[in-house]
Amino acid sequence: MKQRLTILGSTGSIGTSTLDVVARHPDRYEVFALSAATQVDLMLAQCAQFRPRYAVMASGAHARLLAERLKQNDLPTQVLQAPDALETIASHEQVDAVMGAIVGAAGLAPCLAAARAGKRLLLANKEALVVGGEVFMRAVREGGATLLPIDSEHSAIFQSLPEDPTTWGRRVDHVVLTASGGPFRTRDPAGLRDVTPDEACAHPNFSMGRKISVDSATMMNKALEVIEAHWLFGLAPEQIKVVIHPQQIIHSMVQFRDASIIAQLGTPDMRVPIACGLAWPERVESGAATLDFTSLAALTFEPADAARFPGLHLSWQALAAAPGTTAVLNAANEVAVDAFLQGRIRFDQIHALNLATLEAVLPSNPDSLQALLALDAQARARARQLVQRFN
Ligand code: NAD
Ligand code: MG
User: Fold this and answer.
1) Are 191 and 294 within one domain?
2) Which residues line ligand 1 (CB under 6 A)?
3) 3-class DSSP state for residue 17?
4) I want to staple 252 with a disulfide (CB 3.0 to 4.6 A). Which of 154, 156, 341, 379 is the partner?
């Protein structure tokens, strides 16, 4: 039986890499539904190639445009409109697996719907888990979903951990998330004030969406990943450590009680964790190049400099604070990155805005999707007000 897939965010960097892997295995996978925000041309091309039953667009205007173009091309895909339709395609009874590859908290509701419906949920959309926290993990448990991490660090940890999660507590001492250090790892911190969006998005090893690229430059991406690791693997905040490893060959590692370390290695190519999640526990060809050890010059490691990357430590602080604080941090950071990309605040003001929003918004333990979305909206509104003051 073929696995039927819904891909949320199919036109993005993770979405297109997922379709690249899927296209290599027409005998194993079939695309049931795709979704995108505004990219009508690319969605049309994906519908022509993969023939999904449904395509979801974020606005009525984009949905109408896509429907017209599909008709002109004699393609039978039905077009639906977000946000409600995202939950429909994520939880549809004919869907086996859902790839969560929307960027930001916008992906929370459909990922939760997939979790509640007991799907195999491939999670790239780390913000959904950072915002959803306990509510998200409860939905996975109660829905009987299989949650498979796609973020490369978390896929590495998942692959390095013993198969039986009930043994993790007594066997695992801590995990080490590796970080590339982004494009500003060696730049004088004083010069970071005036970097441009294009400089921040020029990641040394990966071509990714602009939001995660800016997050990699500030290392807020690693901060979000610390929070993600906390929820995925049930680890205490102090059991999650970060080390900079610019070559991105070791994707992360687990240190056990006896000081033995198991790491996962490979070329830096997101198709590897995507193929791993799609096929788990089987293994299928991903299209990625294999690692040639004899051509590797060196694997190097260094600590993350707190003066250069002040945002990284907000993760441990937010995890230690009141429940819901990680949702406030995520909302602030989404607003800050957007304001930076629009040229409204400077690069160094991303951290200042995150701090100021955390100080201004006190969360009251959000225990439902509704409460989480309300907190997210409240924190965004506050962060937007603060952006005005920063100008
Ligand atoms: P991207 O910007 O390239 O793609 C985002 C996708 O989501 C697009 O299809 C876009 O149309 C859709 N989208 C955006 N906003 C939306 C909204 N409001 N409603 C509905 N759809 C919307 O992003 P990406 O780099 O592919 O990252 C996707 C997620 O995966 C992020 O959470 C990111 O942190 C995570 N991730 C990405 C990488 C990577 O290498 N790109 C690695 C690890 C984790
Ligand atoms: Mg990652």
Assistant:
1) yes
2) 9-15, 36-37, 39, 58, 82, 101-103, 106, 124-127, 151, 206, 208-209, 211-212, 270
3) helix
4) 156
